From TrEMBL:
NCBIfam families: ffh. It is found in: Cytoplasm. InterPro entries: AAA+_ATPase, P-loop_NTPase, Signal_recog_part_SRP54_M_sf, Signal_recog_particl_SRP54_hlx, Signal_recog_particle_SRP54_M, SRP, SRP54, SRP54_GTPase_dom. Composed of three domains: the N-terminal N domain, which is responsible for interactions with the ribosome, the central G domain, which binds GTP, and the C-terminal M domain, which binds the RNA and the signal sequence of the RNC. It comes from Peribacillus huizhouensis. This is Signal recognition particle protein. SMART domains: AAA (SM00382), SRP54 (SM00962), SRP54_N (SM00963). Involved in targeting and insertion of nascent membrane proteins into the cytoplasmic membrane. Binds to the hydrophobic signal sequence of the ribosome-nascent chain (RNC) as it emerges from the ribosomes. The SRP-RNC complex is then targeted to the cytoplasmic membrane where it interacts with the SRP receptor FtsY. GTP binds at residues 108-115, 191-195, 249-252. Residues 270-283 form the SRP54-type proteins GTP-binding domain. It comes from the Bacteria.
Protein backbone atom coordinates (compact mmCIF):
# COMPACT_ATOMS: atom_id res chain seq x y z
CA UNK A 1 0.00 0.00 0.00
CA UNK A 2 1.08 3.55 -0.64
CA UNK A 3 2.56 5.57 2.21
CA UNK A 4 2.32 2.85 4.85
CA UNK A 5 5.35 3.98 6.79
CA UNK A 6 4.41 7.65 6.81
CA UNK A 7 0.76 6.90 7.53
CA UNK A 8 1.66 4.75 10.53
CA UNK A 9 3.84 7.41 12.07
CA UNK A 10 1.53 10.32 11.45
CA UNK A 11 -1.47 8.43 12.70
CA UNK A 12 0.38 7.50 15.88
CA UNK A 13 1.17 11.15 16.46
CA UNK A 14 -2.36 12.30 15.70
CA UNK A 15 -3.79 9.66 17.99
CA UNK A 16 -2.01 11.24 20.93
CA UNK A 17 -3.52 14.65 20.39
CA UNK A 18 -6.94 13.63 19.10
CA UNK A 19 -8.78 13.12 22.34
CA UNK A 20 -7.17 15.89 24.36
CA UNK A 21 -9.64 18.22 26.04
CA UNK A 22 -7.02 20.90 26.33
CA UNK A 23 -4.12 21.53 24.01
CA UNK A 24 -1.41 24.07 24.66
CA UNK A 25 1.48 25.40 22.66
CA UNK A 26 3.87 22.86 24.14
CA UNK A 27 1.60 20.02 22.96
CA UNK A 28 1.56 21.43 19.46
CA UNK A 29 5.32 21.85 19.52
CA UNK A 30 5.84 18.26 20.60
CA UNK A 31 3.44 17.00 17.95
CA UNK A 32 5.13 19.05 15.24
CA UNK A 33 8.50 17.67 16.22
CA UNK A 34 7.18 14.18 15.55
CA UNK A 35 5.48 15.23 12.33
CA UNK A 36 8.72 16.79 11.14
CA UNK A 37 10.65 13.59 11.80
CA UNK A 38 7.99 11.48 10.15
CA UNK A 39 8.09 13.60 7.00
CA UNK A 40 11.87 13.64 6.83
CA UNK A 41 11.96 9.91 7.28
CA UNK A 42 9.46 9.63 4.43
CA UNK A 43 12.09 11.37 2.27
CA UNK A 44 10.10 14.58 1.84
CA UNK A 45 12.25 17.48 0.65
CA UNK A 46 13.64 19.23 3.75
CA UNK A 47 12.58 22.70 2.70
CA UNK A 48 9.08 21.48 2.05
CA UNK A 49 9.04 19.94 5.53
CA UNK A 50 10.25 23.15 7.11
CA UNK A 51 7.56 25.26 5.44
CA UNK A 52 4.89 22.73 6.22
CA UNK A 53 5.76 22.57 9.91
CA UNK A 54 5.83 26.34 10.11
CA UNK A 55 2.42 26.73 8.50
CA UNK A 56 0.73 24.06 10.58
CA UNK A 57 2.30 25.36 13.82
CA UNK A 58 1.15 28.91 13.15
CA UNK A 59 -2.38 27.85 12.41
CA UNK A 60 -2.56 25.30 15.22
CA UNK A 61 -1.61 27.67 18.00
CA UNK A 62 -3.99 30.24 16.55
CA UNK A 63 -6.92 31.37 18.64
CA UNK A 64 -9.65 29.51 16.82
CA UNK A 65 -7.95 26.15 17.31
CA UNK A 66 -6.66 25.98 20.85
CA UNK A 67 -9.70 27.70 22.29
CA UNK A 68 -12.16 25.48 20.46
CA UNK A 69 -14.17 22.77 22.20
CA UNK A 70 -12.29 20.02 20.40
CA UNK A 71 -8.75 21.37 20.04
CA UNK A 72 -7.21 17.95 19.35
CA UNK A 73 -9.48 17.37 16.40
CA UNK A 74 -9.03 20.91 15.17
CA UNK A 75 -5.27 20.45 15.06
CA UNK A 76 -5.72 17.28 13.02
CA UNK A 77 -8.02 19.18 10.69
CA UNK A 78 -5.28 21.75 10.15
CA UNK A 79 -2.75 18.99 9.42
CA UNK A 80 -5.12 17.45 6.89
CA UNK A 81 -5.81 20.76 5.15
CA UNK A 82 -2.13 21.60 4.91
CA UNK A 83 -1.24 18.11 3.64
CA UNK A 84 -3.91 18.54 0.98
CA UNK A 85 -2.49 21.93 0.08
CA UNK A 86 1.01 20.47 -0.10
CA UNK A 87 -0.15 18.01 -2.73
CA UNK A 88 -1.82 20.70 -4.80
CA UNK A 89 -5.13 21.46 -3.11
CA UNK A 90 -7.76 20.89 -5.74
CA UNK A 91 -7.76 17.95 -8.09
CA UNK A 92 -6.37 19.14 -11.41
CA UNK A 93 -8.21 18.47 -14.62
CA UNK A 94 -7.01 17.01 -17.87
CA UNK A 95 -7.08 19.35 -20.88
CA UNK A 96 -9.70 19.11 -23.58
CA UNK A 97 -8.78 20.93 -26.75
CA UNK A 98 -11.44 22.99 -28.50
CA UNK A 99 -9.89 21.80 -31.74
CA UNK A 100 -9.54 18.05 -31.39
CA UNK A 101 -7.50 16.00 -31.14
CA UNK A 102 -6.17 16.92 -27.71
CA UNK A 103 -2.48 16.07 -27.83
CA UNK A 104 -0.73 14.63 -24.79
CA UNK A 105 3.03 14.09 -24.81
CA UNK A 106 4.20 11.42 -22.38
CA UNK A 107 7.81 11.97 -21.32
CA UNK A 108 10.13 10.41 -18.76
CA UNK A 109 13.22 8.38 -18.09
CA UNK A 110 13.49 4.72 -18.98
CA UNK A 111 11.89 2.32 -16.57
CA UNK A 112 9.69 4.93 -14.93
CA UNK A 113 6.62 3.30 -16.44
CA UNK A 114 5.99 5.65 -19.35
CA UNK A 115 4.82 3.10 -21.90
CA UNK A 116 2.65 1.28 -19.39
CA UNK A 117 1.14 4.58 -18.24
CA UNK A 118 0.40 5.62 -21.83
CA UNK A 119 -1.70 2.47 -22.18
CA UNK A 120 -3.35 2.97 -18.80
CA UNK A 121 -4.21 6.58 -19.57
CA UNK A 122 -5.82 5.65 -22.88
CA UNK A 123 -7.81 2.99 -21.06
CA UNK A 124 -8.94 5.47 -18.41
CA UNK A 125 -9.87 8.12 -20.96
CA UNK A 126 -12.09 5.66 -22.72
CA UNK A 127 -13.58 3.92 -19.70
CA UNK A 128 -14.19 6.89 -17.48
CA UNK A 129 -14.51 9.81 -19.87
CA UNK A 130 -15.83 8.05 -22.95
CA UNK A 131 -13.03 9.28 -25.20
CA UNK A 132 -11.46 7.74 -28.28
CA UNK A 133 -7.67 8.00 -27.97
CA UNK A 134 -4.99 7.07 -30.48
CA UNK A 135 -1.75 5.71 -29.03
CA UNK A 136 1.45 6.73 -30.78
CA UNK A 137 4.66 4.71 -30.57
CA UNK A 138 7.40 7.34 -30.82
CA UNK A 139 10.01 5.68 -28.60
CA UNK A 140 12.23 4.39 -31.39
CA UNK A 141 15.34 3.84 -29.27
CA UNK A 142 14.44 1.49 -26.44
CA UNK A 143 14.44 -2.01 -27.88
CA UNK A 144 10.93 -3.42 -27.92
CA UNK A 145 9.22 -0.22 -26.76
CA UNK A 146 7.11 -0.09 -29.93
CA UNK A 147 6.19 -3.74 -29.61
CA UNK A 148 5.32 -3.19 -25.95
CA UNK A 149 2.89 -0.41 -26.79
CA UNK A 150 1.36 -2.48 -29.57
CA UNK A 151 0.87 -5.38 -27.19
CA UNK A 152 -0.76 -3.08 -24.63
CA UNK A 153 -2.97 -1.63 -27.38
CA UNK A 154 -4.16 -5.13 -28.27
CA UNK A 155 -4.78 -5.91 -24.64
CA UNK A 156 -7.06 -2.90 -24.16
CA UNK A 157 -8.35 -3.10 -27.69
CA UNK A 158 -7.13 0.28 -28.84
CA UNK A 159 -5.33 1.36 -32.01
CA UNK A 160 -1.60 2.09 -31.92
CA UNK A 161 0.04 4.25 -34.57
CA UNK A 162 3.58 3.26 -35.44
CA UNK A 163 6.01 3.72 -38.32
CA UNK A 164 8.70 1.40 -37.00
CA UNK A 165 12.01 2.58 -35.62
CA UNK A 166 13.55 4.06 -38.76
CA UNK A 167 11.40 7.17 -38.95
CA UNK A 168 12.11 10.15 -36.71
CA UNK A 169 9.84 10.65 -33.67
CA UNK A 170 8.90 14.11 -34.92
CA UNK A 171 7.71 12.68 -38.22
CA UNK A 172 5.84 9.90 -36.41
CA UNK A 173 4.06 12.45 -34.23
CA UNK A 174 3.19 14.58 -37.24
CA UNK A 175 1.68 11.73 -39.22
CA UNK A 176 -0.14 10.41 -36.15
CA UNK A 177 -2.01 13.67 -35.71
CA UNK A 178 -3.08 13.68 -39.37
CA UNK A 179 -4.33 10.13 -38.94
CA UNK A 180 -6.13 10.99 -35.70
CA UNK A 181 -8.00 13.80 -37.45
CA UNK A 182 -8.98 11.53 -40.31
CA UNK A 183 -10.27 8.86 -38.00
CA UNK A 184 -11.88 11.21 -35.49
CA UNK A 185 -9.80 10.39 -32.48
CA UNK A 186 -10.28 13.02 -29.78
CA UNK A 187 -7.01 12.30 -27.93
CA UNK A 188 -3.52 11.52 -29.18
CA UNK A 189 -1.13 10.07 -26.60
CA UNK A 190 2.48 10.18 -27.75
CA UNK A 191 4.81 7.72 -26.04
CA UNK A 192 8.12 9.53 -26.52
CA UNK A 193 11.59 8.10 -26.06
CA UNK A 194 13.14 7.79 -22.64
CA UNK A 195 16.80 7.68 -21.70
CA UNK A 196 18.62 6.35 -18.71
CA UNK A 197 19.61 9.88 -17.72
CA UNK A 198 18.58 13.31 -18.79
CA UNK A 199 20.74 14.35 -21.73
CA UNK A 200 20.75 17.08 -24.28
CA UNK A 201 19.81 14.89 -27.24
CA UNK A 202 16.74 13.67 -25.45
CA UNK A 203 15.64 17.17 -24.50
CA UNK A 204 16.25 18.48 -28.02
CA UNK A 205 14.14 15.75 -29.49
CA UNK A 206 11.34 16.36 -27.00
CA UNK A 207 11.47 20.08 -27.69
CA UNK A 208 11.17 19.38 -31.42
CA UNK A 209 8.10 17.22 -30.86
CA UNK A 210 6.64 19.90 -28.61
CA UNK A 211 7.31 22.58 -31.21
CA UNK A 212 5.61 20.61 -33.93
CA UNK A 213 2.62 19.13 -32.11
CA UNK A 214 1.87 22.03 -29.76
CA UNK A 215 0.65 19.57 -27.12
CA UNK A 216 -2.18 20.46 -24.76
CA UNK A 217 -0.49 18.49 -22.00
CA UNK A 218 3.06 17.34 -21.34
CA UNK A 219 2.97 14.66 -18.67
CA UNK A 220 6.16 13.56 -17.00
CA UNK A 221 6.05 9.96 -15.79
CA UNK A 222 8.21 9.39 -12.71
CA UNK A 223 8.70 6.47 -10.38
CA UNK A 224 7.45 7.36 -6.88
CA UNK A 225 9.81 4.87 -5.29
CA UNK A 226 12.84 6.92 -6.34
CA UNK A 227 11.86 9.64 -3.86
CA UNK A 228 13.88 12.84 -4.16
CA UNK A 229 15.44 11.64 -7.44
CA UNK A 230 11.97 11.80 -8.93
CA UNK A 231 11.64 15.35 -7.65
CA UNK A 232 14.96 16.33 -9.26
CA UNK A 233 13.99 14.72 -12.55
CA UNK A 234 10.70 16.61 -12.46
CA UNK A 235 12.52 19.85 -11.83
CA UNK A 236 14.87 19.40 -14.80
CA UNK A 237 12.14 18.35 -17.21
CA UNK A 238 9.99 21.23 -16.08
CA UNK A 239 12.74 23.78 -16.57
CA UNK A 240 13.56 22.55 -20.04
CA UNK A 241 10.21 21.52 -21.38
CA UNK A 242 7.52 23.16 -19.28
CA UNK A 243 5.41 20.33 -17.87
CA UNK A 244 1.67 20.54 -17.37
CA UNK A 245 1.49 17.58 -15.03
CA UNK A 246 3.22 14.65 -13.39
CA UNK A 247 2.13 11.03 -13.32
CA UNK A 248 3.55 9.29 -10.30
CA UNK A 249 3.90 5.56 -10.91
CA UNK A 250 4.47 2.62 -8.58
CA UNK A 251 2.74 4.34 -5.70
CA UNK A 252 1.46 0.89 -4.78
CA UNK A 253 4.98 -0.01 -3.67
CA UNK A 254 5.92 3.35 -2.19
CA UNK A 255 5.70 3.14 1.58
CA UNK A 256 7.35 6.51 2.12
CA UNK A 257 5.65 9.10 -0.05
CA UNK A 258 8.49 11.61 -0.31
CA UNK A 259 8.01 12.27 -4.02
CA UNK A 260 4.25 12.59 -3.78
CA UNK A 261 4.54 15.15 -1.01
CA UNK A 262 7.38 17.19 -2.50
CA UNK A 263 6.85 17.37 -6.25
CA UNK A 264 4.11 19.96 -6.26
CA UNK A 265 5.87 22.35 -3.89
CA UNK A 266 9.30 22.04 -5.45
CA UNK A 267 8.32 22.12 -9.12
CA UNK A 268 4.98 23.87 -8.97
CA UNK A 269 3.64 21.16 -11.27
CA UNK A 270 0.55 19.25 -10.20
CA UNK A 271 0.40 15.49 -9.89
CA UNK A 272 -2.42 14.52 -12.20
CA UNK A 273 -2.47 10.74 -12.01
CA UNK A 274 -0.98 7.98 -9.90
CA UNK A 275 -0.08 4.44 -10.93
CA UNK A 276 -1.21 1.87 -8.40
CA UNK A 277 -0.12 -1.37 -10.06
CA UNK A 278 0.96 -3.02 -13.27
CA UNK A 279 -2.47 -3.77 -14.68
CA UNK A 280 -4.11 -1.58 -17.30
CA UNK A 281 -6.79 -0.32 -14.91
CA UNK A 282 -4.35 0.64 -12.15
CA UNK A 283 -4.26 4.37 -12.87
CA UNK A 284 -6.18 6.82 -10.70
CA UNK A 285 -6.81 10.53 -11.00
CA UNK A 286 -4.89 12.17 -8.19
CA UNK A 287 -7.07 13.80 -5.54
CA UNK A 288 -4.91 15.63 -2.97
CA UNK A 289 -7.66 15.67 -0.39
CA UNK A 290 -8.44 11.98 -0.68
CA UNK A 291 -4.75 11.17 -0.51
CA UNK A 292 -4.32 13.26 2.64
CA UNK A 293 -7.29 11.43 4.06
CA UNK A 294 -5.72 8.05 3.29
CA UNK A 295 -2.41 9.09 4.84
CA UNK A 296 -4.16 10.13 8.04
CA UNK A 297 -6.18 6.91 8.20
CA UNK A 298 -9.48 8.58 7.43
CA UNK A 299 -10.16 6.29 4.46
CA UNK A 300 -11.03 7.07 0.90
CA UNK A 301 -14.59 6.00 0.34
CA UNK A 302 -15.03 8.20 -2.73
CA UNK A 303 -12.33 6.37 -4.68
CA UNK A 304 -13.85 3.08 -3.62
CA UNK A 305 -17.24 4.11 -4.99
CA UNK A 306 -15.70 5.29 -8.24
CA UNK A 307 -13.88 2.02 -8.66
CA UNK A 308 -17.14 0.20 -8.23
CA UNK A 309 -18.89 2.39 -10.74
CA UNK A 310 -16.16 1.96 -13.32
CA UNK A 311 -16.14 -1.79 -13.08
CA UNK A 312 -19.82 -2.44 -13.06
CA UNK A 313 -21.54 -2.63 -16.41
CA UNK A 314 -24.63 -0.46 -16.06
CA UNK A 315 -26.91 -2.61 -18.19
CA UNK A 316 -25.91 -5.70 -16.30
CA UNK A 317 -26.45 -3.90 -13.00
CA UNK A 318 -29.97 -2.95 -14.03
CA UNK A 319 -30.74 -6.47 -15.12
CA UNK A 320 -29.39 -7.77 -11.83
CA UNK A 321 -31.48 -5.35 -9.85
CA UNK A 322 -34.56 -6.62 -11.66
CA UNK A 323 -33.61 -10.18 -10.87
CA UNK A 324 -33.24 -9.28 -7.24
CA UNK A 325 -36.61 -7.61 -7.22
CA UNK A 326 -38.27 -10.63 -8.74
CA UNK A 327 -36.14 -12.99 -6.64
CA UNK A 328 -34.94 -14.81 -9.77
CA UNK A 329 -31.27 -14.36 -8.89
CA UNK A 330 -29.31 -17.48 -9.84
CA UNK A 331 -25.88 -18.89 -9.10
CA UNK A 332 -24.76 -17.67 -12.52
CA UNK A 333 -25.63 -14.11 -11.47
CA UNK A 334 -23.71 -14.67 -8.29
CA UNK A 335 -20.68 -15.81 -10.28
CA UNK A 336 -20.90 -12.70 -12.39
CA UNK A 337 -20.97 -10.50 -9.30
CA UNK A 338 -17.87 -12.17 -7.95
CA UNK A 339 -16.12 -11.48 -11.23
CA UNK A 340 -16.99 -7.80 -11.06
CA UNK A 341 -15.71 -7.45 -7.52
CA UNK A 342 -12.48 -9.11 -8.58
CA UNK A 343 -12.08 -6.64 -11.42
CA UNK A 344 -11.85 -3.83 -8.91
CA UNK A 345 -8.43 -4.99 -7.78
CA UNK A 346 -6.97 -6.89 -4.85
CA UNK A 347 -9.51 -7.08 -2.06
CA UNK A 348 -7.12 -6.06 0.68
CA UNK A 349 -6.28 -2.86 -1.19
CA UNK A 350 -9.97 -2.06 -1.40
CA UNK A 351 -10.48 -2.70 2.29
CA UNK A 352 -7.73 -0.31 3.16
CA UNK A 353 -9.74 2.52 1.67
CA UNK A 354 -12.31 2.20 4.40
CA UNK A 355 -11.96 4.78 7.17
CA UNK A 356 -10.07 3.47 10.16
CA UNK A 357 -9.46 0.12 8.48
CA UNK A 358 -5.81 0.14 9.42
CA UNK A 359 -6.74 0.61 13.05
CA UNK A 360 -8.73 -2.61 13.19
CA UNK A 361 -6.67 -5.18 14.97
CA UNK A 362 -4.77 -7.42 12.61
CA UNK A 363 -5.88 -5.43 9.59
CA UNK A 364 -2.44 -4.04 8.86
CA UNK A 365 -1.09 -7.39 7.86
CA UNK A 366 -4.31 -8.79 6.71
CA UNK A 367 -4.45 -10.41 3.36
CA UNK A 368 -7.81 -11.57 2.19
CA UNK A 369 -7.74 -15.11 1.04
CA UNK A 370 -8.53 -14.63 -2.60
CA UNK A 371 -8.34 -18.38 -2.96
CA UNK A 372 -11.64 -18.62 -1.10
CA UNK A 373 -13.34 -16.75 -3.90
CA UNK A 374 -11.72 -19.11 -6.36
CA UNK A 375 -13.17 -22.05 -4.41
CA UNK A 376 -16.66 -20.58 -4.51
CA UNK A 377 -16.31 -20.05 -8.24
CA UNK A 378 -15.15 -23.64 -8.71
CA UNK A 379 -18.16 -24.99 -6.81
CA UNK A 380 -20.61 -22.94 -8.87
CA UNK A 381 -18.93 -23.98 -12.11
CA UNK A 382 -19.44 -27.63 -11.19
CA UNK A 383 -23.21 -27.20 -11.07
CA UNK A 384 -25.50 -27.99 -13.96
CA UNK A 385 -27.61 -25.23 -15.46
CA UNK A 386 -30.66 -26.59 -13.69
CA UNK A 387 -28.84 -26.61 -10.35
CA UNK A 388 -27.66 -23.04 -10.82
CA UNK A 389 -31.16 -21.84 -11.52
CA UNK A 390 -33.00 -24.04 -9.06
CA UNK A 391 -30.59 -24.91 -6.24
CA UNK A 392 -33.42 -26.58 -4.37
CA UNK A 393 -32.93 -29.67 -6.59
CA UNK A 394 -29.46 -30.22 -5.18
CA UNK A 395 -29.82 -33.37 -3.11
CA UNK A 396 -27.05 -35.27 -1.35
CA UNK A 397 -26.11 -37.22 -4.48
CA UNK A 398 -25.73 -34.02 -6.44
CA UNK A 399 -23.77 -32.41 -3.61
CA UNK A 400 -21.28 -35.24 -3.76
CA UNK A 401 -20.88 -34.82 -7.49
CA UNK A 402 -20.41 -31.03 -7.18
CA UNK A 403 -17.86 -31.46 -4.41
CA UNK A 404 -15.92 -33.94 -6.49
CA UNK A 405 -16.12 -31.83 -9.62
CA UNK A 406 -14.79 -28.74 -7.89
CA UNK A 407 -12.26 -30.48 -5.67
CA UNK A 408 -13.91 -28.98 -2.55
CA UNK A 409 -15.50 -30.69 0.44
CA UNK A 410 -19.22 -31.38 0.87
CA UNK A 411 -19.21 -29.04 3.88
CA UNK A 412 -18.07 -26.21 1.65
CA UNK A 413 -20.77 -26.96 -0.88
CA UNK A 414 -23.33 -26.96 1.96
CA UNK A 415 -22.03 -23.66 3.30
CA UNK A 416 -22.29 -21.99 -0.08
CA UNK A 417 -25.82 -23.30 -0.62
CA UNK A 418 -26.84 -21.99 2.80
CA UNK A 419 -25.28 -18.58 2.14
CA UNK A 420 -27.02 -18.35 -1.19
CA UNK A 421 -30.33 -19.30 0.41
CA UNK A 422 -29.85 -16.61 3.09
CA UNK A 423 -28.96 -14.05 0.48
CA UNK A 424 -32.11 -14.74 -1.46
CA UNK A 425 -34.16 -14.41 1.71
CA UNK A 426 -32.62 -11.04 2.31
CA UNK A 427 -33.41 -9.95 -1.20
CA UNK A 428 -37.02 -10.96 -0.68
CA UNK A 429 -37.24 -8.89 2.46
CA UNK A 430 -35.75 -6.02 0.63
CA UNK A 431 -38.22 -6.37 -2.20
CA UNK A 432 -41.08 -6.25 0.25
CA UNK A 433 -39.92 -3.00 1.81
CA UNK A 434 -42.08 0.06 1.31
CA UNK A 435 -41.05 1.92 -1.83
CA UNK A 436 -39.59 5.00 -0.17
CA UNK A 437 -36.98 3.03 1.71
CA UNK A 438 -35.50 1.55 -1.44
CA UNK A 439 -34.41 4.92 -2.70
CA UNK A 440 -30.71 5.43 -3.12
CA UNK A 441 -29.97 1.76 -3.35
CA UNK A 442 -27.08 1.02 -5.61
CA UNK A 443 -25.62 -2.28 -6.55
CA UNK A 444 -22.10 -2.70 -5.27
P1 LIG B 1 9.22 2.90 -19.54
O1 LIG B 1 10.63 2.50 -19.84
O2 LIG B 1 9.19 4.18 -18.79
O3 LIG B 1 8.34 2.93 -20.73
O4 LIG B 1 8.67 1.83 -18.50
P2 LIG B 1 7.63 0.64 -18.65
O5 LIG B 1 6.29 1.17 -19.03
O6 LIG B 1 8.21 -0.43 -19.51
O7 LIG B 1 7.52 0.14 -17.13
C1 LIG B 1 8.61 -0.38 -16.41
C2 LIG B 1 8.10 -1.38 -15.38
O8 LIG B 1 7.35 -0.72 -14.36
C3 LIG B 1 7.17 -2.42 -15.97
O9 LIG B 1 7.50 -3.67 -15.44
C4 LIG B 1 5.79 -1.98 -15.51
O10 LIG B 1 4.89 -3.06 -15.40
C5 LIG B 1 6.11 -1.37 -14.17
N1 LIG B 1 5.11 -0.37 -13.72
C6 LIG B 1 4.67 0.72 -14.39
N2 LIG B 1 3.78 1.42 -13.67
C7 LIG B 1 3.62 0.75 -12.49
C8 LIG B 1 2.85 0.99 -11.28
O11 LIG B 1 2.10 1.96 -11.14
N3 LIG B 1 2.99 0.07 -10.29
C9 LIG B 1 3.81 -1.01 -10.40
N4 LIG B 1 3.88 -1.85 -9.36
N5 LIG B 1 4.55 -1.24 -11.50
C10 LIG B 1 4.48 -0.39 -12.53
Amino acid sequence: MAFEGLADRLQGTMQKIRGKGKVNEADVKEMMREVRLALLEADVNFKVVKDFVKRVSERAVGQEVLKSLTPGQQVIKVVKEELTELMGGEQSKIAVSTRPPTVIMMVGLQGAGKTTTTGKLANLLRKKYNRKPLLVAADIYRPAAIKQLETLGKQINMPVFSLGDQVSPVEIAKQAIVKAKEEHHDYVLIDTAGRLHIDENLMDELKDIKELTKPDEIFLVVDAMTGQDAVNVAQSFNEQLGLTGVVLTKLDGDTRGGAALSIRSVTNTPIKFVGMGEKMDALEAFHPERMASRILGMGDVLTLIEKAQMNVDEDKAKELEKKMRTASFTFDDFLEQLGQVRNMGPLDDLLKMLPGANKIKGMDNLSIDEKQIGHVEAIIRSMTLQEKEHPEVINSGRKKRIAKGSGRSIQEVNRLLKQFEDMKKMMKQFTNMPKGKKKGFKLP
